[in-house]
Every structure is written in structure tokens, then in C-alpha cells.
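[job 4471] stage=fold_predict status=RUNNING
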Amino acid sequence: MENKFLPICKQDMIDRGWDQLDFVLVTGDAYVDHHSFGTAIISRVLENAGYKVGIIAQPDWKTTDDFMKLGKPRLGFLVNSGNMDSMVNHYSVSKKHRDKDMYSPGGKMGCRPDRAVIVYCNKIREAYKDVNIVIGGIEASLRRFAHYDYWSDRVRKSILIDSGADLLVYGMSEKQIVEVANALNDGFDPKYIRHINGTCYVADTKEEIYDDYVEIPSYKEICESKETYAKAFKIQYDEQDPFRGKAIIQKHGDKYLVQNKPEAPLNREELDAVYALPYAKDYHPIYKDMGGIPAIEEVKFGIVSSRGCFGSCSFCAITFHQGRAVQSRSHESILEEAKYITELPDFKGYIHDIGGPTANFRHEACKKQITKGACKHRQCLHPDPCKNLKVDHTDFVQLLRKVRSLPKVKKVFVRSGIRYDYVMADKDNKFMRELIEHHVSGQLKVAPEHIAEEVLQYMQKPAGNTYDRFRQKFFDITEQVGKKQYIIPYLMSSHPGSTLNSAIELAEYLRDIKYQPEQVQDFYPTPGTLSTTMFYTGIDPLTMKPVYVPKSKHEKAMQRALLQYSAPRNYELVHQALVEAGREDLIGMAPRCLIKPREARGYLNRANSNKKGNKKTDNKNSKQRSNSKGGSSRGKNTNERNSKNTSKQKRKRR
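[job 4471] inference complete, writing C-alpha cells
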């Protein structure tokens, strides 16, 4: 097969000599034929299996015209919202419209509807009443059961019910989409395609379900009781394993949503084959004059080396979508792609990333995981690394060495996240030394997320001094190799379990390490995660015990402000938070205080405002104040933010 784009219009079909397509894939993203985009993978996998596939990208959903431009497919429509849930794509955690869509031409917003999968399915039914529809991708996958929807603040039905589609494929889907295609090609009505792992269907009665299953509380029951919702989620969470998991059913009205157990992960040869398909590895030429597709820039010079994650962070959807079993590509497959990248005309010598959900996971957590499945009631890394965990970076080190030794390659970076607790569990320092010496672009991004133990417990992240030990080790080795490099920690505010005191504890930690983050992420309740269940129910489904959840806009604003306590714009919020928490001891002039008293701050502001009247006198007074007890550098920096000298002082202080 040639590396050419799939049909997007009738002329493309004519050029290929095709009268009718087997499948038409409708997506909320612009058409980018690169293996970092689910649409490209699924369409290429089907093409490789012998099916004729066309793409309708970002159709106008106000009419049926775009949905009919490639004609009625022989076997059916495939529908996804794109690489992101359409609601997450459109709205920030504060439910405000985002300014840019990285998956649309020129970053333009408004190229897809809210709840894209449902809207697209409705339009397809309007155009072709009797056509088969199969939904998939991240939006369908994470909404396959009845679920809490943050944007409407209510429990919604399974997206398979709401969309009216015939089948739902969840997870990465390469295996099951071909099985579904083959069954349709063999003449099966989709309502009888019920045997394929990694799919969901709707049954009229329990008698129609032949596999062993576990029933969870119905849609009606979980709407009426948050405790019941939490119990239902716990069962879903426990059964998401391709080896030991069972089918799950959930009643919706007079019908049953049936999830077959997850599909087994691809082995290395299968994964290599997926990434070896003839992707054009670029966005479609029609977007060139529209400003291109911004998302390609993040992946064009990077390489996906693995899938799955046994880290199991509570707020992450990867466990529910890709699973806990890590699959990785062979060195040969990755080197072949790296060589291709070096031949691109705009390649500057830098491979931007070699990684995956967690870059330093290259193999299964333990031998048991690939034969009997992941442990049902035990995590691999939380609260401490399991005694059976295989901790070994040897393969990743060898891979990085091979790629960086290729001709034309100046540097290979590891920019996707690493699990620092997994690094610290490794008794061999070879990986960390090589990472620091060869693969950090000045700043290493890691995700401690928080520092308060009660929050980390709910996040299923490492507590104790693991992060501190990692930081110290990073800076020690950095100094040893003669470099100046830094750690950029990702931090999250307002996660379930985080009180004002938790946020203050994190603020004090940031004070002590002399770091102020430029950005802080509020917890975002996205479908299908353990943390979202805690957010909605106020219950930890793993223990069925109550958990504190910060929900008011004001408290969330205070928690976020505490993590950037030195920013002048946050002064009032930080002051309110400290008073409310009874921590006025952190308001004062002493070095350990987070903010100064109002009266001192007012004095400084008045003094600074007088500078405008007499520049010469101001310079003299400023010098005197800077030498006085308590100092006033923060007030000076606030009022002279644009001055060159002040910028230098701020950088030095940070």
C-alpha cells in the first residue's frame, strides 16, 4: 500500500476506482494521517484487512449533506469524537469555552458539536435510517456505562443508549474493529454480534446474555443514590482486565447495556504491525491554507514506544481506556520510524520524545500480569511498589542509546511523563544518569501532583519523601555531569481529599523549595475515572468511606491561589484561605510567612505610588527600603513588573 491519504470526497473514490466504500469513518478531528490519531490507526487497520474506508472529518452537523458526500457505505459508519472527549475539548474546568482547538484547522474552535458522537449518530440516522453504526474512540470508551457528566452535573445513560448506535468498541480497538468488520462482511446483523471482547451491545433480556457476567446497579438506581453509584463504579473498576475480568451488565429502562470483557492487549509483533502501516504522517493537504493542524507539531518528531500504564493514577482515564498491561514496540520498529523522521525536510536533529502514557514503562509489571491479569485489589506502585514488581530500565536505556546514535540525530528527549517512584525503586542509577546527561531538554517535567499525604492517598500517587529523594538525586547527578537543569512539577489543586489545610501544606512546601509554578491545574472531573466518582459521590469507592470534596468556586479558587501565593493577583484569596484555616501565623514579615500583612502591603503600595511624583527621590527611598528590616521587594516587583532590573530580581528569587 502507498502512503497516500484515504478518500475524503467522491473524486478520491473515483481515482481509486471505487464505486462504494465499505466503511465511512466520521470524526470530530481534522483528518491527520498519523498514528498518534485514533482515526488514522483504525482506518489503516481496516484498510490493511482489505476494506475500503473513507473519512468524513468535522462534518457540518446542522444538515445531512456532509454525512452523505461519500454515499452510503456497504457495511456501516464508524463514529468517534476525535482524540479528545468533545466536552473536554470545548470547555475548561471552569466550564468556559476554550480559545483554541489543537485538532482543528488553524486551531479554530467550533468545528465540532458538543457531545459529538451522539450528534453525529443522529445525523447519520437522519440521512440513512437503516445503516449500521459503530461508535468508538475516547468519548465512547469512557462513557460506555451510565456515568456522571460534569458539564450537565448529572448522571447520563450509556452513550450507546443515547446515540442509538448498534455497537460500541472500547479501548484501543484494533483487534475488535476487524472482528466486527468481518462479522458484518459475513452478513451478520449487528444486533447478533455479541461475542467480541472489547465491545458493548444492548440486550432486551438477561436470557440473551450467554457469557458469565456480573450485574451492576441500574441507571435508575445510581441516579437515586450516590452510594449505589460508587458501588457500581467499584465493580466496573475491578473487572477491567482482559484475563480475569467478567462481562458487566447494567439495566437502562427495559433494556440491558452489556460490556463484554476487555480485549487482550496486542503483543509486540501486533503492535509493530500497527505502527508499520502506510500512514502519510501528516495532516491532509486541504488544511494547508487554513493554517494546518496544530496538534501535529506535538507528535511529528516524537515516537510512541508503548501503551498502557500500571501506575493507575485515580484521575487518569488510561486505566479505563488502554488498561494496566503495558505493551511496547520493538527496538527495530522504533528505529525504523526514527530513521524516517530524520529524513523529513524540516527535521533539525531533535527527536522530541520517545515514550507513551508513562515513558519509562517498557514491559509488564510482573509475569503474572500477562497470564492471569493485574491484581484485583492491589496496585503495582501504590501505596508502595509491589514486591513482585519488575523494576528494570535496561531495555529503555538500550533503546535510547540506539536512537541517539543514528546519523542526523543531535539529541533525543524524553518529554512524556516518567514515574519517579518507579525510578527510585530501581537500585541501578544507570537510567537516571543517562536521562539527565542525554535526554532532558533543560527541564524535566514530572507529576508529583501534591504533597499532602491524605490527597496523595486518594490520587494513588506516592506519598512520603519519594519526590524529595528524587529531586535531590536529580540535582546531585545534574551537578555531577556538569549541567544546569531543572525540574518542573505538575501540581493539581482541589482534588477529592484536598482541604484548605492540604493546599496550605503544599504552598509551604513550595515556599521551602523556593519554587512557584507558572501554571496550576484544577482537578477536572472527566468521565470514567476513580477521582470523578469521588467528586460526584463524596465517597471513595475503593473503601466506601466518605471523602472531602472541594466543590464551591470560591474554595477551589482559594486552593488554586495558594499554589501561586506570591502572585499579587492572588493576595486576597490567599489571605482569606489562611484566615479561614486558622493559619494567620503564615501572614507576616517573617521568612516563613506566605504573604505580608495588609497594613504592610498597603504601606508598600502607597510608597511605590509616590515614585511617580519624584523619580530621583523615589530611587533613593527604594534603595533605603530594600535595606530595611522586612524588605519590600515583593511590593517593588509588583509595581515595576515591566522593568528590566525587576525582571532580573524575580528570576533570581525564583
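[job 4471] summary: The longest helix spans residues 466-480.
[job 4471] exit 0
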